[in-house]
Design brief:
By secondary structure, the chain is of the alpha+beta class. The protein folds into 2 domains: 198 residues, Adenine-n6-DNA-methyltransferase TaqI, Chain A, domain 2; 234 residues, Adenine-n6-DNA-methyltransferase TaqI, Chain A, domain 2 (Alpha-Beta Complex), CATH 3.90.220.20. Helix 2 crosses helix 13 and helix 7 runs antiparallel to helix 13.
């Protein structure tokens, strides 16, 4: 039994614990404090108690293979010459979009639908069930692959996402600057067998997984309709001519007339692809207009102190910029309900969101589920006019026609940003405004996609909570 030391043994808030010597002698003989963190100790004690009531196996018993493909030299090439490559952070996006393309990669880096993917370096222990959409990409070697034995990968996924699974998954991380875990760390994690509950949990997770796949398909369809319904050609930076031909393409060298500088000397403001976009939009069969013409209001809350609370009942879930493109918001914190001027940071249904610092231009949408959540001042709020379909605006701004224009507006030496006084830069973005029926046809797909994603997250959250409750009750002898 491990006991937390008395309060008088606490030194300036430092938590100290006693651990039995056999814990240190077991396995890798770890002496780093994180290996014996309070949540890890709680998980180990709970598993010891569960072992008295249930058969406890290991993750390897659920898997045909647990591996990572090893580091490989990444030879980046143009889109036309290579295959799309995703980093771990991009894999967890709602609709991953590659920014790099590779050739001559080892075949082991390709994945199959329904494999479990686990981040193995940096931010450790994030887990995703691979969708069929991800089969189209080459995935980073910084993801551990679990090839499940049976169709019970939903239960395995749910268990690894409980606080118990997360504690046992992350306890083995090592490294001074960048943390890592290895496949054998995952393979050795204990997992209880609960026949009466496994099928139910598995079914719920697979339902959530199916909804996510359907949501991605809807977004892909909406993106395709931006081109087909509006009659816009697909654009690619590889098609742009740079000064100096191929050598100039390597450094993206181009010329700008002095009359076109517009008091901006940053290269991103004058990229040749932006000229192509203006040309194509001017030839579109539908009306071209400015984004500012179709919105009622665009604003950024002023900076505010964030009083976080641990008890969700005392707070409101708080979205940060990194959450906007995610397939599910991870590590969500809660901000105190009684915070001064709380109304200024709350989100409302059908607002369009845009990250405006760091990685600028990630587009999100406030669904029914997110209505009433709070959000960071690093997220720009766009309130669309009532006669305009907000889902359509999300689709257009998420397309390359919107993405390149947004990137052309940013400024900043170290951190890219759009400040509160400069929202007019975003209002100046050119968009196409088709007939209302076309807007609704595209926009309804986007809104449905976000609703499906939210339903998936709710179902998953309920399944994980149910599993945590059951494990706690079994450990208590119920």
């Amino acid at each position: 039994m491990v006991e937390k030391k008395r309060d008088d043994m606490m030194i300036e808030g430092v938590q100290t614990v006693d651990v039995p010597i056999h814990w240190i002698n077991e396995g890798e003989k770890r002496l780093d404090a994180g290996f014996y963190a309070q949540d890890v100790i709680a998980a180990r004690i709970l598993m010891e108690r569960i072992n008295k009531h249930l058969d406890v196996q290991s993750i390897s018993d659920f898997s045909n293979q647990i591996f990572w493909p090893g580091r490989f030299k990444r030879r980046y090439v143009s889109k036309n010459d290579g295959e799309p490559f995703l980093m771990p952070s991009e894999v967890f996006m709602f609709l991953p979009k590659p920014t790099k393309y590779v050739i001559n990669y080892p075949p082991e880096v390709k994945i199959k639908k329904n494999w479990l993917l686990i981040t193995r370096s940096g931010t450790i222990g994030r887990i995703l069930i691979a969708t069929k959409y991800l089969e189209n990409f080459v995935l980073s070697d910084d993801l551990i692959r679990i090839v499940p034995k049976e169709n019970n990968y939903g239960f395995l996924y749910a268990y690894l996402n409980t606080w118990i699974g997360q504690a046992l998954l992350t306890k083995d991380q090592y490294g001074a600057t960048v943390k890592h875990i290895e496949p054998h760390h995952v393979a050795n994690i204990p997992i209880p067998r609960i026949p009466d509950l496994e099928e139910e949990i598995n079914k719920k997770i697979l339902e959530a997984h199916k909804l996510r796949e359907e949501a991605q398909e809807l977004l892909l369809k909406a993106e395709e309709m931006i081109y087909s319904e509006l009659g816009l050609p697909k654009i690619d930076e590889d098609d742009v001519e740079y000064f100096g031909r191929e050598l100039g393409r390597l450094v993206k060298a181009f010329e700008v007339k002095a009359s076109e500088l517009d008091y901006r000397l940053d290269a991103s403001y004058h990229l040749p692809i932006l000229r192509k976009i203006k040309e194509y939009l001017s030839k579109c069969k539908y009306q071209s207009t400015k984004l500012g013409k179709v919105i009622d209001r665009m604003f950024i809350p002023t900076r505010f102190k964030r009083p976080y609370v641990k008890n969700p009942a005392e707070g409101i879930p708080f979205l940060q910029g990194a959450h906007i493109p995610m397939i599910k918001p991870m590590d969500v914190k809660y901000i105190w309900k009684g915070m001064k001027n709380m109304e200024n940071v709350l989100l409302r249904r059908h607002w369009v969101l845009m990250t405006r610092s760091g990685t600028v231009g990630r587009i999100g949408f406030v669904s029914d589920f997110l209505d009433g959540w709070a959000a960071s001042e690093h997220i720009l709020r766009i309130i669309v006019k009532s006669e305009i379909n907000p889902g359509y605006i999300v689709a257009f701004l998420s397309s390359l026609y919107g993405e390149y224009q947004i990137k052309g507006k940013v400024y900043g030496a170290v951190v890219d940003e759009i400040a509160e006084q400069d929202t007019s830069l975003i209002e100046d973005i050119d968009i196409i405004l088709p007939d209302k029926d076309i807007q609704d046809k595209i926009g309804s797909l986007v809104i449905e996609a976000y609703n499906k994603k939210d339903r998936a997250n709710l179902i998953e959250g309920e399944a994980i909570k149910e599993l945590e409750t059951c494990l706690t009750e079994i450990a208590g002898g119920k």
